[in-house]
Amino acid sequence: MVFFQVEHNESLQLHKRHHKSGILEGVRELTHKYSLQYPSKYVTWYPGFTYRTNRMMHAFCATLFHTIPSALLDVYLYCTKQKPMMLKISRKFYEALNAGSFFSTHQWDFKASTMYDLVDAVKHAEDGENFEVDLSEANGFNWDHYVKDFIIGVRKYVLKDDLSSLPAAQIKLNRLYWFQKIFQIVSMYAVLKLTSYLL
């Protein structure tokens, strides 16, 4: 959770904290909820979010559930004379996650006495109604609406995927769910067989 503390100094102070983030868990749940409600027609894997504290286990799961399926889809695309792109997308996604991992895996306290001054200054400015800087719940900020709008915005403006494709995307998402479950069972069976063979 992000905490604001009034302090009479002139700069924004940032302090790292090492306990589990309540706000991050809430955002994760909302992101998952709206990823399922507003899937893109470009979705290639059923959305899921898992926090892991073990780096080796994360690398194993990322390989098993991201890299290998991406490679198999690229082989399929190549065989059907389409441009292979899934490994490239998977690699870019992984790089983006790594870039933000330090900030998403630590709890942060913001001591921002000047933030209150900024909110007050904007409210009293001549054109202050054009700029919303008060993101407090008391002012009506709502994480649920924010994440929903964010997911829809990415779908419409980044992926260029109009909401008219939503029914077909939801059918595709349902198929991906069952494909993923079958793939996971087969993968785990193969790992167990390989392990028993090697031992």
TrEMBL record:
The keyword Cell cycle belongs to this UniProt entry's keyword annotation: no
Gene Ontology MF annotations: alcohol-forming very long-chain fatty acyl-CoA reductase activity
UniProt protein name: Fatty acyl-CoA reductase C-terminal domain-containing protein
GO biological process: long-chain fatty-acyl-CoA metabolic process
Transmembrane segments: 56-79
One Pfam short name: Sterile
InterPro entries assigned: FAR (IPR026055), FAR_C (IPR033640)
GO cellular component, one term: peroxisome
Classification lineage: Eukaryota, Metazoa, Ecdysozoa, Arthropoda, Hexapoda
Annotated organism of origin: Rhamnusium bicolor
Alphabetized UniProt keyword annotations: Membrane, Transmembrane, Transmembrane helix
All copies of domain Fatty acyl-CoA reductase C-terminal, residue ranges: 65-161
